[in-house]
Amino acid sequence: MEITLITPTPPDISAFGVRIISACLKKAGFSTRMIFLPGGIAHLEHGGGYIYQYSEKIVKQILEISQNSNLVGVSFMTQYFDRAVQVTKAIRKRKIPVIWGGIHPIHCPEEALRYADIVCIGEGEEAMLELAERMEKGLNYYHIKNLWFRKNGDIIRNAKRGLISNLDELPFFDFALENSYIYDLEKDGICEMDINLFKRSLPLLCDINGDLKISYRTMTSRGCPHRCSYCASSVMGILRRRSIDNVIQELVETKNKYPFIELINFFDDTFFGGKDEFFEEFSKKYKKRIGLPFHAQCSPTTITEKKLESLIEAGLVFTEMGIQTGSSRIKRMYRRPTPNKKILGVARLIDKYRHKLLAPDYHIILDNPWERQEDVRATLDVILKLPRPYRLQISSLVLFPGTELHKKAKAEGLIKDEIREIYRKPFLHPQGTFLNYLIYLAGFCYFPRGLLKLLSRKSISRVFNLGNSIKLYHILYWLTERIVLFKKGVISLTHGDLARIRQYFLRQKTI
Ligand code: B12
Question: How many structural domains is the chain composed of?
Answer without folding.
Answer: 3
